[in-house]
Amino acid sequence: MTERGLIIIVEENEYDQRRAMLSVESRTMGSASHLIKENPREAKIEIEGFSTPKKTLGVICSLNFSNAGTEEIIDLANACAVRKIPLIVCVSTERDEGVDLQVSALKRNGVACRVTRTGAKDWEGAIGDILNNRP
Question: Which residue in 16, 7, 45, 32 sits closest to 135, CA to CA?
Answer without folding.
Answer: 7
